[in-house]
Automatic annotation (TrEMBL):
The chain crosses the membrane at residues 91-109. Keywords: Membrane, Transmembrane, Transmembrane helix. One of its GO terms (molecular function) is sigma factor antagonist activity. SUPFAM superfamilies: Concanavalin A-like lectins/glucanases. The keyword Transmembrane applies. InterPro entries: ConA-like_dom_sf, Ferrdict_sens_TM. Pfam families: Laminin_G_3 (PF13385). This is LamG-like jellyroll fold domain-containing protein.
Amino acid sequence: MFDEARLERLISAYLDQELTADEKRELEEMLLASSRAREIFLDRANWHGLLREHALQGQAALLMDEEAPAPSSSAPPDPAPKKIIPFRRKAAWLVAALAACVALGWWLLPRPAAEKRGIVKRGKGTEHVALLAQAIGVTWEDGSSSFGTGSALPRGWVKISSGTLRLDFYSGARVILEGPASLELLSPDLARLEKGKLTARVPPPAEGFTVISSDLRVVDRGTEFGMNVSGTNDCEVHVFDGEVELQGELPATAEKALYQGNAVSIREGRWTSMPADRGSFADPAAVLTAAVRESEAQLAAWQKDSLDYRSLPDLKVYFDFEGLHPGDQVIPNLAAGADESSNGTVIGCDPLPGRWPRKGALGFAKTSDRVRFRADGTTPSLTLLARVRVDSLPQSHNHLLSMAPESVGEVHWKIDQSGCLVLGVRAEAKLASDSWERLTSPRIVTEQDFGRWMQLATVIDGSTGTMKHFVNGKEIASGKMARRPAIQLGLANLGNFDASAPEFQTNIVRSFNGRIDEFAIFTRALDASEIAAIK
């Protein structure tokens, strides 16, 4: 049930455009939870529209009376008026009814793209120019931005102390960067090399790709070339295939074009011609081989750890998503001693590669995709842990995990549209905003993180009444619980929201868009060191 007097006050504030953000959420929850509340809302919105239309018509009539010429005394008298309802008054009823429906729909349907906040709107400062395709043995320079494989790279600096990166520019140019190196990404076809080595392979669509170093501009003319910058006035350019054009402050005797097999060394303003040395630069094929080797080594280490993981104390649910094929319906719960009744049922999701090419995962793309499972029992404490790849955040609520509605102790775990990790624990049975204990993290997902794998964990510690969020093993948020309900396990959805209660509308969309390749539930509060140790 809901407080009808409170609903009336909220509707009145809504119609007067005086709702606060908290009141707006409260009204939305009432409307979603109760058909009677929706009837009241429609009725009040309908009358509001009629009264407004009546006032507008009255004002218009006064204006017309003031401006209309006086009737001629010789004019024949008007015939007796017919008792009919003017069309405009009929229209007023239709407009008011339509306005009420639209107003209710505004609450119950997903917001239009124009209202999406934060990461959905891309400013000029966040324009992406390249993709980080591979990273082998990379150590990022202290104080600089770090990126994961698959990340879209914005304009700005990429700085590594060691290792090798493969960058695929949106123009089509492919660059191998060898550390230590500093490369500034300026546009899809322009970069500045401050230090380090790079090899650029430039196909025809990317012809004109340019790399700057001090006063030198190396402009591709359909080629593969290498650059080595070891100081402000110390640079080498090697052409392995095709041709490059050299621009800038060149000596009168310097060649403006450099062809296959040739190189130039520039030291303290002195130019020296020499043969190109392919062996001193990274070979793209060798980089690919090294990336595969590193991936296989990481997968093998995870497979070993996963076997130990299954027997950890109080592990209730563990899905590793390995060995799945298209059409498979069951994901086994691999937690030690788990019953088959706790296995997951796949609904709509497709098997896809996980964080490594040969690691299994499930893709959640359609709004109906989910994994349905049951984990019975109650517990004072809980830990949720998942390896996820967020591909987009199209919904206001993008659920990682939801439990059946209207149960005290149910847990909801999601990422909101601004990219914050959110935990909700129902502390009271009433359908109201203040029935929940919540913890919201700072922003953890930006557009830069789309396509990037991360470990998310959330801990509910019933003994201390605390909630904590972790990202990649590091604590990012914590908060106290005013109420400490026992966590009620039961039917749950991975990657979606369960709106099975009759009071809920079945068209609520709160689906997750991305991939999950590992998921676990513990019926105890893991500490920070335990979470950090789970690779």
